[in-house]
Amino acid sequence: MTENKDIKDDPKQPNSSSQDRHEEPKADSKIILKVIEDEMKKSYIDYSMSVIVGRALPDVRDGLKPVHRRILYAMYDMGLAHNKPFKKCARIVGETLGKYHPHGDTAVYETLVRMAQNFSLRYTLVDGQGNFGSVDGDNPAAMRYTEARLTKFAEELLEDLDKETVDFQPNFDASLKEPIVLPSKFPNLLVNGSSGIAVGMATNIPPHNMGEIIDGTISLIDDPEISVEELMHHIRGPDFPTGAAISGMNGIKSAYLTGRGKITVKAKAEIIPHKDRERIIVTEIPYQVNKAMLLEQIAELIKIKKIIGISDIRDESSERGGMRVVVDLKKDANSQVVLNQLFTFTNMTVTFGANMLALVNNEPKTLNLKQLIENFVLHRRDVVRRRTQFELRKAEERCHVIEGLIIALNNIDIVIQKIKKSKTVEDAKKMLMLDYKLTDIQAHSILEMKLQKLSSLEQEKIRQEHTELKKLIEELKAILASEEKILDIIKKELAELKQKYADERKTRIEFIEEEDLIVEDLIKEEDMVVTISHNGYIKRLPVATYKQQGRGGIGVKAAGTGEEDFIEHLFVSSTHNYLLFFSNKGKVYWQKVYQIPEASRQAKGRAIVNLIPLEKDEKINAFIPVKEFDESHNLILCTKKGIVKKTQLSEYSRPRQGGIIAITLDDGDSLVNAVLTDGNKEIIIATKEGIAARFHERDARPIGRTARGVRGINLEDTDTIKDEVVGMIIADKDHSILSVTENGYGKRTPVEDYRLINRGGKGVINIQCSERNGHVVSVNAVTDEDEVMLISRNGVIIRTSASGISCIGRNTQGVRLMKLRESDNVVAATKIAKEEPNGVR
Q1: Global pTM?
Q2: CA 403, CA 481: separation in Å to the nearest integer?
Q3: What ranges do the domains of the chain cover?
């Protein structure tokens, strides 16, 4: 054994001195040595988790903290239904304390009171009788004076509790069982909200309107991929029990998207004339604001002259007339200025700090709007499934008993004789089980059967019950076998709740506040040139950047592109318009013009993949600017193989972040162009071989967004010629068709020169594609007032008037439109369009 004497005598050791040295504990000692830092850390973590899970935070499934759940369960256990007599609150508090919640009676009573206050909960869970406090901060009467019972609304939280829908746990002394969570037929956490301060975290979830929450929940069940933004079409924002108004949407959006947000809430006040002056009437105040303290605050600000122009302030509120605070103004006071001061300096404007923190599987998590609803739906699915299993078991047990009774009734005379001959009940039971192959339960039920059941009418009832039970068992098994049926039951129950409890919103949402200015409110509305290069670079710059030049000019440089890149697309649109980007793969993406980065004429712009999530080998080659999506306009799409498709514009109103299908393409086909119509337009499809077909859009019936489409033009397909579509335009009769070839030549031709044919025809000659001209690269519908932009492969752009281009027949070659340098050719041409009725360019 190694000698440890030197170690013990080492003065550097912490316990080496005789004063600091302590004796080692004896073997039978109960003293346990621990590092105090570790013990403090462990003990505090245990305490904090106890507070988080057991007191301060609500469960995401039923929206209740343990104290709320125990009070409601105690009242349920006492039979205090909404249609039963009231019971003293002292008795309810005692029942809760003695059986489930061994904490202070004051805390339990305060919780009970809050659940009965219509200014604290959007939908009260307790029906109180007596003085339960007021919005002025008055204390409720003592629990020995007040009475309470459950509301009908609270019973929806507790319904089916006796059908094994949720798990139970032992109470604090293991003498009773209490539910871990309530079945909860509606998302109570969102409907009534919750607030609480735990250790190192807090929750503050605002209440909402029942009808909106149910609509949002049903929409999520119907479409599990629904986004938070789409949910907000149903759930507009919090709905506080005290009404008032929410200023702006930024706080709501932040809370719903991230789980955290600051929501500005303002009192409802109006200025009315009164005799020779004006007065301000306040009828609604922000949630959780004490009205009496608000009046004191206003009075103090008047006293120190921070608010001037007020002669008197008084509270004229009454139980029948509701809230009414009257602020009398002086004769020379500016009422709007005084009101603004009240909003600025008092609690007539407050910030509700939304922090949507809740327990998910006993873990605190910050959840967004969709996650909160998803967790409720998961809980409700489990409840409905367990309830169905319980009802199925009960139905099968009853059916089993009924089948035994029917066997006995079918042999009733012999059965009675055999029972009479049996010496004991046990002998009779054994006889029934052996002679008729019955189970113990069936035999017992036969022996317990009353004589009145032997009447023919009673026998018929038993057989009818058996038939109904068989049918019920089949239905319950079908529900358990289908997830869709379970979800249908949830939706049906939610719809019934909406019918019973949904009411109008109390809290208005104002969209006019400065803090809610959307980005485009700060952007000047002006026309922009949007360019996209072959390699996928996009930018915008003002139309005025380009100088107007005569026909045949050299032009100016449009973009600083490398030799390997060139400008492929050019478009003119307003900064406030939406842009629908259509890709060659038949998908559509959504963007605002102002969201496209602005760049100088020499810059090449930003890679489009940084703005739009394109797939590999996917390119944008058609785009439509739109102000609003309606059902009176159509989008007509055309592909390289001559397929056209017409779909209502409204079907494109909600593209997803990753794009949506605009048209289903055949193998080897790609999307060429998309145009917007009003249902009464004629269409011209032009090909690279100089052929064009004109037909009415009525020839193409409206079909769904993801459909393939129908034939628009019959393309020539031989060994020597493989024609394909290069463009599609709207053929207005007051326009001419501008055709541009790759060698810089082109012409205008009147629309009337193209005869109207049926969709799918071969078409007529549009322009001669000679060796001088080359193939057609672009067609546009123009008038004399229009201006046209042409762009070459090397990035040279020219802006010229359409009136300067010759208007000649179809079967001609045209004139020179743009002088091209060697190895350069025209790749695109577009016009600067006028404003259309739908705001489309």
Answers
A1: 0.61
A2: 25
A3: 65-183, 268-347, 388-501, 519-832
Quick one: which H or E segment has residue 495? helix 483-501
Q: Three-state secondary structure along 353-391?
A: EEECEEEECCEEEECCHHHHHHHHHHHHHHHHHHHHHHH
Contact 619, 584 (CB under 8 A): yes
The angle subtended at Cα 564 by Cα 559 and Cα 565, nearest 5°, is: 35
Active site residue 145: yes
Phi, psi of 102 (to 5 degrees): -80, 65
The one-character DSSP state at 771 is: T
Tell me how far apart the alpha carbons of residues 410 and 420 are, in angstroms, rounded to a whole number: 17
CATH class of 519-832: mainly beta
Structure tokens at 87: 């019971």
- 65-183 maps to CATH 3.90.1170.40: no
- For the four alpha carbons of 273, 276, 282 and 283, in that order, the dihedral sign comes to negative
CB atoms within 10 A of CB 503: 11
Nearest to 298 by CA among 321, 282, 317, 276: 282
Looking at 411-455, list the stretches that DSSP marks H as alpha helix, in order from N- to C-terminal side.
Answer: 412-421, 425-435, 440-448
pLDDT along the chain (841 residues), means of 10: 43 45 58 84 75 81 95 96 96 96 93 96 96 94 97 96 95 94 96 89 94 96 92 95 92 93 95 90 96 95 90 92 93 87 93 94 93 96 96 95 90 89 90 90 89 81 93 96 95 96 94 48 68 73 62 52 56 78 87 78 75 81 78 90 90 77 88 87 90 90 87 84 86 86 89 88 87 86 82 80 85 86 82 45 38
Helix axes 89-99, 66-77, angle to 10 degrees: 110
Closest CA to 284 of 320, 252, 319, 245: 245
Nearest to 253 by CA among 269, 231, 268: 231
- What is each CA distance from 404 to 95, 408, 463, 728, in whole angstroms? 44, 6, 11, 78
Name the class of domain 388-501: mainly alpha
DSSP string, 469-489: HHHHHHHHHHHHH-HHHHHHH
Rounded distance, CA 554 to CA 242, Å?
A: 70
- The correct CATH number of 268-347 out of 3.40.1440.10, 3.40.50.2300, 1.10.10.350, 3.30.1360.40 is 3.30.1360.40
**Cα pseudo-dihedral 559, 565, 567, 568, rounded to 10:** -170
d(CA 804, CA 817): 9
Q: How far apart are the first and last CA of the chain?
A: 96
In the set 100, 145, 594, 754, the catalytic residue is 145
In sequence order, what are the beta bridge partners of 686?
A: 692, 727
